[in-house]
Design goal:
The structure is a homodimer of 474-residue chains. Chain A has 474 residues and is an alpha/beta fold. Chain A has helices at residues 12-24, 46-51, 65-70, 134-144, 152-156, 162-169, 184-195, 214-227, 273-276, 324-338, 369-374, 427-435, 440-444, 460-472; strands at 5-8, 30-34, 74-77, 80-85, 90-94, 99-103, 106-109, 113-115, 128-130, 176-180, 199-203, 231-233, 238-242, 249-252, 255-258, 261-264, 268-270, 301-303, 310-311, 318-319, 352-356, 359-365, 379-387, 398-406, 412-419. In chain A, a hairpin with a 5-residue loop joins strand 24 (398-406) and strand 25 (412-419).
Chain lengths: 474, 474
Amino acid sequence: MSDPFVIIGGDAAGLSAASKLKREDPDRETIVLERGKWVSYAHCGMPYYVKGDIGSITKLLSLSPEAISERNIDLRRGHEVTAVDPDARTVRVRTETDQYTLPYGDLLIATGAHAISDPIEGADLEGAFTMHGMDAAAALRAFLTPPEEIDPETVDDEYVDRDRVETYANREPPESVAVIGGGYVGIEMVEAFQAHDLDVHLFHKYDGVLMPFGEAVGDRVNETLREHGVRLHLETEVHEIVGDERVEGVIADDGRTSVDVALVGIGIQPNTEIVEETDIECGDSGAIATDEFGRTNREHVYAAGDCAEMRHAVTGEPAWVPLGLTANRAGRAIGQTVAGDPTPVGDIVGTAAVKAFEMECARTGTIDLERARDAGFDPVRETVTASSRSGYYPGAAETTVTLVADRGTGRLLGGTIVGSDRAAIRIDTLATAIEGGMTVGEMERLDLAYAPPFSPVWDPVLVAAKVLNGSLDD
Amino acid sequence: MSDPFVIIGGDAAGLSAASKLKREDPDRETIVLERGKWVSYAHCGMPYYVKGDIGSITKLLSLSPEAISERNIDLRRGHEVTAVDPDARTVRVRTETDQYTLPYGDLLIATGAHAISDPIEGADLEGAFTMHGMDAAAALRAFLTPPEEIDPETVDDEYVDRDRVETYANREPPESVAVIGGGYVGIEMVEAFQAHDLDVHLFHKYDGVLMPFGEAVGDRVNETLREHGVRLHLETEVHEIVGDERVEGVIADDGRTSVDVALVGIGIQPNTEIVEETDIECGDSGAIATDEFGRTNREHVYAAGDCAEMRHAVTGEPAWVPLGLTANRAGRAIGQTVAGDPTPVGDIVGTAAVKAFEMECARTGTIDLERARDAGFDPVRETVTASSRSGYYPGAAETTVTLVADRGTGRLLGGTIVGSDRAAIRIDTLATAIEGGMTVGEMERLDLAYAPPFSPVWDPVLVAAKVLNGSLDD
């Protein structure tokens, strides 16, 4: 009986699992089925490629198909899995020209997620984009770049959708854009469009951008966006992208705005179609439910990455927080488990960071008070703004820290940080404290680094812990 | 009976304690006895003042004497304590013109430390400096600045030693310097002298600079210093500073080097003279022994700051690590304890950071293998160099992380980080993990932030944890 490790999806989770297994057990056959052409690419780098910070799109590849094959991984691009049969332990595969059934010993579902644009009409017009896929990134960069400055390598790249790129490459660059959605992708793309001198309109349904980062971050980012000349349409829903073949404008709560490009960044959903016809279970989030080893409810079937849930260390409940490290880490652990060394995928605390022009934003843990209450906590929140360095040292910047703790136990539940000087990386201190189960009282006494060029005597994180610890007794 | 809270020393620990007590118990009389004129100043900022990054020396004051008196603290500058009598609960005070005995209810010894230069002859010549005191900083800055560019405010400042400043202010700036000692102060001062275009010779007794930061940091800093044209005299002891009244050169193992200035930064010692005639105990380090509340062995007598030991969280043993946050934190806790709310001063893990030109260096915990063995551990160490950001993102820099863990338990004992991109602030993640009692296995699975501009998928800290965790089983 053939017992290959079959992996559906050739991105972070899938290739981390494949690589780890081949290191631990080089003789085990490992097959990666990827329906597209691109593998192992850095989603999070795409906005910076579009912006122009990164020269060639192939720099976003963590591993080339050649490097993958050197690892003796059987990578099959253009192979789409259409069905999974956990009883027979097989998957059904379709290629452009063929179909076949592949038996597996162990199966990893690492199908990722897709950008949603459904609620908005006109998202299929030329000039309307989502930022979820390398071909979209390549086409958009080509569109934004004056024809004479297009790097021929991008157009000639062997993986890129040349037709799509060429459609845009020969046009005069657009002058205005509607970015629809003020989440990560929206905020990063605002910066990318601005770098190409477009007139940027940001439409956001709610009053604060970057909602998962909380109000204190949203407020400072709103301010930063305005300072950079971004036209903010807050609490403004876009209903339709309009145009005759090509995008000509958007219709929103505040009327019609003429633009040449529309970028839809209103969210993503896990790719779970292939489990719908099986008894492999999804959680409340809609993503595939997994246990501490990344196993689904069916034996020998694992799930990881943007299509899977993970356990949240604060609530102890499953959560769907599709992020790059989670995918890599879970994939790697599953590879090791499949190799015979059971390895937990680890918990998540939803640590994330995003750049909004010079403003560095980060969040970790549970910062939403309602969610904290649902998880059985009595949350108390404090926000402080303190200097990133000794006040007398050049470059000191106001850093805003929000912390949430449980009143009864003092346990740190979550936090956010925003500022222009080394703000985002400070979130790792909070993430570590949360995963270590620390109280804010313990945090207040942490022996953190002090050196005038990097941090004041009382780091903003310590100031926030001190203030919140004081509030716990109120 | 009068029961004032009497504090010996008007700097970080002393004034933190005084301020905290006055907030908690505004009616309690609080007297701060400071033998000098300067109070509450930022030692760590002095090299940057000398360098020229900070305009006026008074910017280094955290609190002005006026602000201190607004807090109803009875600050007495120029009042030196010459004796302590814990039986009578009094201190003996001397001023320029007078002597008196002052009874106390509670006493805090916060006398700080002093720079040592004893083993080197000629350290009293004109042009020889230590960097431990504002008057030295003011004089040195005046010396380095061309007479026509001297800021008159510095000379006129009400606290500054004008005679000393004027001695140097009217001279032509020096052209070369011998920095003696490659510790924090030496390294920071090298950068300061370089900024004034001096020819800089750094003499260091051992082969690696910044010894408390370990070899991996020392090696990269050596490289950086050489790149900046600093002349390194490693494993070279200086025996004498020579000159006729003024510094003309230094005599070291490698012969005579002609220089116009000598900066001695070979270490500091706790100021413990006033307890020598009492039964107040010092620890093995020579600093005053304290318990978890900062109390000495005598009732109602506390010690904090650079003159006192603290408990080290890794070894559980007393340690003398004179740093700014420790002094502030312990002072504040003692103020609260004296106010009737017993508050632990907290443990230390010796977290420290220092800038060497563009290189950011940091350390925390126990990194010396011999010390770790003495504390009963079986230490394993690994050093990795990894990128500070996604490799494709501009500004990514090689970041070197060393971690030390105990083989048996996997517990993280210490670590160092060096690199040019947000390297130092990452040490707080390690400090938090150490104080949280984490193993490197737990660290490897930490959910840290990933965003291309700030950090790669696997932060250097995670890479190091992964490698070290793998080595624990070897």
